[in-house]
Design a protein that fits this description.
The complex is a heterodimer of chains A (325) and B (428). Chain A has 325 residues and is an all-alpha fold. Chain A has 15 helices and four strands. Chain A is globular and about 60 Å long. Chain B has 428 residues and is of the alpha/beta class. Chain B has a seven-stranded mixed sheet with strand order 7-6-8-9-10-13-14, with helices on both faces. The interface between A and B is large, with 59 and 57 residues.
């Protein structure tokens, strides 16, 4: 069937909604939000890093751009969460486009360093922008009874969701599913094939007529926008945001580690990586000694680089090919 | 054939890795100890690793001492107290999940905060949503936006903490030197910026001219350029709002570059920690800084604090804990944070959060840090910050900081043990 994947996506979104209605324990929504946010980040990173071979170390910068766009909009217009996410995506997408213009002539380690520098520059700007709290950070008070198109979204008695965390979980889940759909679409499109060609040899791709600069700019814009959308609800989730937490290096590390572990060659890789590593991290944070949290990321990453350099997806493909002979 | 075998080995290795992760989660399972007879569970997150671990670790030991004390006396409401806590890694992102787990999975009966404003703030909406009484440890204006009536802050900085925190420092400096000009150096981070904002208001209220104002990145290692730039403006006083790493760096820069300012210090977090005091030693001489509890004879107004600290130090030594060896900075306050909650539960005779909150709002408590009455937004009704000056430090021996004389109390006047000396008069 032609639209099987799209139907599955729709069913998953419905499933997420049902979960918010039947699960009473809020803890799962907190944990779920974090894992789904990482899923979006990993998927977004993979569009540029996995398909195009351009390693972005500045993921936290794009995420924070979305978060601080939301903070500015809350302070200025007191807009709702959906509007914050749309605006966060647009601004981070434009930032991605600008970054692409400025840095895509760089390659390999030079591009990676440039993206890392971008995150540091953005952090410095935010730390001196008092309107969004500056270095001291700011508390965000989510709307008590948010509405969307006239519908009461969150209210203990009359709202679609009983509390704000269910709403955040549902929105982030929906964004994660849409992100995966976009990544899959790109993978199977001319854009994805072009990016793969760039990854293998940019000169050869250029000679074959692949519009390398245009494709790279599209990839940086889409990747940046997705990270911005993922970052926009961060302020509402934490209810307090400061540059140290928004630009935390952990986001950048996870955005890279998750696709590497899951596999960068397919849209499913970041999803698997985010589910496995995100769950392991949450489990380790709350049930294991917390010091093991980052150790798990490091050890798992090193082991995968050695045993399965193409991630779980790559390893399964090889395994299938091997057993087919 | 060989390839298939290799692939199988890889499958098992990968599967084993993730299974190990899950198994580890069981073997390192949380700190909570199962108790018989339905204990009262007190839940909290704490910075046991990361930037604020120095304070978080000593706070945890203090809370454990409180639980031991309460349980020895028969517990709360006749039930033993059980602590359930998780390391927030000084990362605000971890806090909402931790408090949700505490309330939804661990089913704790009472909650208190972790250490520091940016780790209190993310837990506020959960406490409000569940209508729980929430005690905050060293949060600066954490409830200003929320105005939640059942939040209570353990920070002796008064109803306007940003101003109250530095008020006494400015008072001491103004009385002694009447400075006309002042320089500000502050870390680009939450607590330091709030502190500086209050300090600037105090300086302006006293008619001082701000001749230099510089924020620095918390990752800064070399502070000599900043200090030289401040010295170029010839300020009469230098107010510093810094975190532990910056405080140590600035003290070293002061030792290297020097200054003609008569008063230096103010809001330097970390100089109260045993490790930093011993490490910096004589370089601390002359610095006038805020503090909350020092081993001076006049600190007897805090009943039980000296005894508590002695017990803390003995526990640290006996159990070879890798935490602050002296514990002056946070131990009495972290203890008071849970002690007040415990007193309220006992007085109310139930775990009814609304009744506990009302009792705390209406009552003046006596704990190890003296009398406490809460005012607007749960802040202290009146400030009780100390200003101390490091004097007569001759070496790097830690023991000297456990005795009277190295941190003289300048203000409040009723517990004063020394006079403010010009910065350079105490430097060799």
């Amino acid at each position: 069937m032609k639209y099987t994947f799209e139907i599955i996506c729709m069913l998953l979104i419905v499933g997420l909604f049902v979960l918010t209605q039947v699960i009473g324990n809020q803890f799962y929504f907190f944990i779920g939000f974090v894992i789904l946010q990482y899923m979006v980040m990993a998927t977004a990173w993979n569009i540029l890093g996995g398909y195009g071979g351009y390693v972005n170390f500045g993921s936290a910068g794009f995420l924070a751009t979305g978060a601080y766009t939301a903070v500015a909009l809350i302070n200025f217009l007191d807009v709702g969460l959906v509007e914050q996410m749309v605006a966060g995506g647009v601004i981070a997408g434009l930032l991605g486009l600008a970054t692409g213009y400025l840095t895509l002539r760089l390659r390999g380690v030079y591009f990676a360093i440039a993206t890392l520098a971008l995150a540091i520059i953005l952090e410095t700007i935010v730390a001196h922008w008092d309107y969004v709290g500056g270095a001291a950070g700011t508390s965000i008070l989510p709307k008590r009874k948010p509405e969307l198109f006239g519908e009461l979204i969150v209210d203990r008695k009359a709202g679609i969701f009983e509390n704000y965390k269910e709403y955040l979980f549902f929105l982030m889940g929906t964004v994660a599913i849409i992100s995966v759909w976009v990544a899959r679409y790109i993978e199977n499109s001319k854009l994805g094939r072009g990016l793969n060609a760039i990854k293998d040899s940019e000169e050869a791709a250029e000679c074959m007529g692949v519009p390398t600069l245009r494709l790279k700019l599209i990839a940086t814009t889409i990747s940046g926008a997705m990270m911005g959308v993922a970052g926009a609800p961060l302020a509402s989730y934490l209810t307090f945001i400061d540059p140290l937490s928004a630009f935390n290096l952990e986001y950048a590390i996870n955005a890279i580690a998750m696709p590497m572990i899951g596999g960068t060659i397919s849209w499913a890789g970041p999803v698997i990586g985010a589910l496995l590593l995100g769950t392991a991290q949450q489990v380790s944070s709350l049930w294991i000694q917390s010091e093991l949290n980052l150790l798990i990321v490091g050890v798992v990453l090193v082991v995968f680089v050695i045993i399965a350099p193409e991630g779980i997806i790559g390893w399964f493909r090889k395994s299938r090919q091997g057993s087919g002979r | 054939m060989t390839r298939n075998v290799t692939n199988r080995v890889r499958v098992w290795l990968l599967a084993g890795l993730f299974v190990a992760s899950v198994v580890l989660s069981g073997s390192f399972a949380t700190t909570a100890q199962a108790q018989t007879k339905d204990p009262i569970k007190v839940g909290f997150s704490m910075a046991l690793s990361g930037a604020l671990a120095g304070g978080g670790q000593q706070s945890l030991v203090a809370i454990q001492l409180w639980a031991e004390d309460v349980n020895k006396k028969g517990g709360l409401l006749g039930r033993q107290v059980e602590l359930v806590f998780y390391d927030d890694q000084t990362n605000p992102k971890n806090v909402p999940g931790i408090y949700s787990k505490l309330l939804d999975v661990d089913k704790v009966d009472l909650i208190v905060s972790g250490y520091g404003t940016n780790l209190i703030a993310p837990a506020m909406p959960i406490a409000i949503n569940r209508e729980m009484v929430f005690m905050g440890l060293f949060g600066m204006n954490a409830n200003a936006k929320w105005e939640y009536e059942n939040y209570f802050s353990i920070l002796p900085a008064g109803p306007d903490p940003a101003v109250g925190f530095s008020e006494v420092w400015f008072k001491a400096v103004q009385e002694k030197f009447k400075p006309k000009t002042i320089a500000f150096i502050a870390a680009d981070a939450e607590f330091a910026q709030n502190l500086k904002e209050g300090a600037v208001r105090n300086a302006k209220a006293m008619g001082m001219e701000i001749v230099y104002e510089q924020n620095y990145n918390p990752k800064t290692a070399d502070f000599t350029p900043i200090l030289r730039a401040a010295n170029a403006k010839k300020p009469d006083a230098i107010y510093i709002a810094s975190y532990p790493n910056g405080s140590a760096g600035l003290v070293r820069a002061l030792a290297e570059v020097g200054t003609d300012a008569k008063a230096v210090g103010g809001g330097m977090v970390g100089l109260q920690f045993a490790g930093l005091m011993a490490g910096l030693g004589p370089m601390l001489n002359g610095i006038a800084n805020y503090d909350f509890f020092v081993p001076e004879p006049t600190m007897n107004l805090y009943p039980g604090a000296s005894d508590l600290i002695a017990r803390y130090q003995a526990k640290v030594k006996a159990e070879n804990l890798k935490v602050d060896e002296l514990g002056y900075y946070l131990v009495p306050w972290a203890y008071a944070n849970v002690d007040i909650l415990g007193q309220a539960v006992q007085a109310v005779g139930s775990l009814d959060q609304e009744a506990i909150g009302k009792y705390i709002r209406d009552t003046e408590f006596t704990s190890v840090v003296g009398k406490i009455k809460f005012g607007k937004n749960g802040e202290w009704a009146s400030p009780r910050t100390l200003v101390v000056q490091y004097q007569g430090i001759t070496n790097n021996d830690l023991d000297q900081f456990a005795k009277a004389g190295t941190r003289k109390i300048l203000l409040p006047a009723d517990i004063s043990t020394g006079d403010l000396q010009p910065f350079n008069a105490l430097r060799k």
